[in-house]
Amino acid sequence: MNIINPATAEIITTVQEDSRSALEEKYLVLKAEQISWSKKSLLERLAVVHRFYDLLEADQERLAEVLTSEVGKPLQQSRNEINGARTRIQWMMNNAEKYLSEEWVTDTEELKEKISYDPLGVVCNISAWNYPYLVGVNVFVPALIAGNTVLYKPSEYATLTGLEIERLWRKAGLPDGAFQIAVGGKSVGEELLAMDFDGYFFTGSYKTGKHIYERVALKMVPCQLELGGKDPLYVADDVNDVAAVAAGTADGAFYNNGQSCCSVERIYVHEQVYEGYLDAFLKEVQSWKQGKPTEEGVYIAALTRKEQLAVLEAQVADALAKGALLLTGGKRGVGPGYYFEPTVLSNVTNGMKVMQEESFGPIIGIMKVQDDNEAIALMQDTEYGLTAAVYSSNGDRAQKILSQIDSGSGYWNCCDRVSAGLPWSGRKHSGIGATLSHQGLRAFTKTRAWHMRG
Ligand code: NAD
């Protein structure tokens, strides 16, 4: 399998994809280790996780360079991602004991009742490339903390990072049998679905997630899906500083080249502030430096996947054919890498692809609305339900609007953010189950209810 640098379209290296028999061997190693890993005390397991956490910091620069080389994001954004992953791990380490220890429910002479949290066993994590550290640690860190062993399949677009993660776990002292990596793409993922894991945890597209859910259903084991989004944002007429809101929300739409599951993907603006917002938004977008991800100060670098360039072109063409106005961008940047100009469209409608299909790129549609009710109806008009954001100086108004949107996260005066203490979950086509927060720690366990008379 060739590993391509999306910034240059050159082959960085070639790696060997895992064969069926190699995967089965890895599974057996994980199975053999699982009981002894789960028998270690929580504190012993946390000590290993702590060393992994320290190594992420010690090796940050090298890890950021590797990540940038294969996914094309600006080097500073790779560093930010590794720091963000450490913040999440820290929360998990601080809260593991609280949420994974036994809980007493009844403690009387006649009856004692408690809940215990047992590991699932050997779990399979099929992952995405856009934030391999962030979406990876959401799964494999709490899974290991809870006493599971993990087969981690990084995306084929983030294989080198997956290998780095495996190296760090070894260096941290994790037994080889507690964490194994599956190298490869779709066909390797399919092989994993044919095997007998005790839980499947997937991050990726709706299309693949639905397929995985169908396949895993027959096994009767837990299956969690973190999928895509078409996340809407509404700017109400009572915002205090339209220009600041425009700059902040532009970042929410274009950070990581728009390749975030919770990127702002559609913007609705109250007619009273529409013109000012649009001007300031455009000014912000046009101020960004585009170029190679390793160049200082670059904000918009290469897209990870070449195929996405055609998707974005098709969205622009569809929007223009249906009456949208192209305010900036709209075409590929100068190659040979996979570049696309940051693109802003106005005069859009919800009937356009750019307002319905996940773009996962540097493109945004901005639409004028008359009032909150129109905004709510348009925001709700989607198959997805990951996040929704409202900007307003009135918190009650914002919460009233957000509570009418069917999404796993609601943002008031912020967007495109994830917090380790809050459940990360999608509704509708955006997913099943949650990572992060106490729910995300317990997602890798099965409960046992103890009824004890004695
Ligand atoms: P993808 O669905 O193409 O691939 C994800 C993973 O699934 C990869 O490891 C891939 O090799 C594997 N895979 C592909 N086909 C498979 C099959 N038939 N059987 C088993 N495994 C298979 O997604 P992607 O392009 O890697 O990621 C982008 C998508 O992920 C976007 O839709 C994005 O919104 C979503 N995402 C969601 C979250 C979240 O937390 N909700 C986070 C990051 C990314």
From TrEMBL:
Q: Which Pfam families match?
A: Aldedh (PF00171)
Q: Which domain of life is it from?
A: Bacteria
Under Gene3D superfamilies, the record lists: Aldehyde Dehydrogenase, Chain A, domain 1, Aldehyde Dehydrogenase, Chain A, domain 2
Active site, renumbered:
226
InterPro entries to which the protein is assigned, alphabetical: Ald_DH/histidinol_DH, Ald_DH_C, Ald_DH_CS_GLU, Ald_DH_N, Aldehyde_DH_dom
Going by the UniProt record, its keywords in alphabetical order are: Oxidoreductase
Q: Where is the Aldehyde dehydrogenase domain?
A: 2-448
Gene Ontology terms for molecular function:
oxidoreductase activity, acting on the aldehyde or oxo group of donors, NAD or NADP as acceptor
Per the UniProt record, the source organism is Pedobacter steynii
Please report which protein family the annotation says this sequence is part of: Belongs to the aldehyde dehydrogenase family.
Q: What is this protein called?
A: Acyl-CoA reductase
